Amino acid sequence: FIFLCFAETHGITFRIQISVKELLDTDVLLKLVFHLPVNYPSTLPDISVNSDQLTRAQCMDVKDKLLEQAKKHLSEPMVHDLILWIQQHLKYVIKQSATVCSEKTTLSKGASTEDGNWMLLLHLDHMRAKAKYIKTVEKWASDLRLTGRLMFMGKIILILLQGDRSNIKEYLILQKTSKVDVDSSGKKCKERMISVLCETKVQAQHKRFQTFEVKEYSTLDELQKEFETAGLTTLFSEFVPPLLK
């Protein structure tokens, strides 16, 4: 494979091209970029995946799987292991991606669009660069055609999203892998303190949000009413009160 390394002020970037004969005996050229931050390997690398032989969704799946593997090697050098892993497992990742695509096609043909609607509830610990963070979340929601709420109540920060399941998944990847905030020293950083409280199919009793809005609530009762109006009383009761403890 081709291997290039660039030293930078905030870490090191590896640009790697590997050829993998995994898909129908055809060579797949993967272009991988690993950006290692200064505190690597205690911090996960940023990973970018591109290939002329794969779709954008497949490249996103490869990136997602590499990040999953990277978490297993946290605090130890991992780039070489990740390259070996994707060489050995690319065909399985592609096959799984194709299966998901097939399932989505079947769903769109045999069911209504609403049957494909999913809902995601996230809890964020904090936002240091609040204005920039909000703008980023709004852009992602717009680009992925997701509706819902970004909700602030005291120190509680929640993101409630509705939309196509694949777009929900892509939002999660963006949220976990992009530099959306700043650390205590003001440097750009990824979101490390995020919790997926709930990911589920939108039910008949749930209200469909028509837009994505940013809202602030002065009391817990106001926040609860937002959930109740959307038919999400049970979701609120199960996940929000525990955040106050």
UniProtKB/TrEMBL annotation:
Keywords, A to Z, come to: Cytoplasm, Nucleus
A Gene Ontology BP annotation from the UniProt entry: positive regulation of protein sumoylation
- Annotated ranges, domain RWD: 1-93
Gene Ontology CC annotations of this record: cytoplasm; nucleus
Under SUPFAM superfamilies, the record lists: UBC-like (SSF54495)
| N-terminal signal peptide | none
Q: Where are the annotated coiled coils located?
A: none
Q: Which domain of life is it from?
A: Eukaryota
**Gene3D superfamilies in the record:** Ubiquitin Conjugating Enzyme
Is Cytoplasm there in the keyword field?
A: yes
Gene name? Rwdd3
> Taxonomic lineage per UniProt?
Eukaryota, Metazoa, Chordata, Craniata, Vertebrata
What is the protein named?
RWD domain-containing protein 3
What CDD domains does UniProt report for this protein, alphabetically? RWD_RWDD3, RWDD3_C
Q: Which InterPro entries match?
A: RWD_dom (IPR006575), RWDD3 (IPR038840), UBQ-conjugating_enzyme/RWD (IPR016135)
The UniProt entry lists the main location of this chain as: cytoplasm
Q: Where in the cell is it found?
A: Cytoplasm; Nucleus
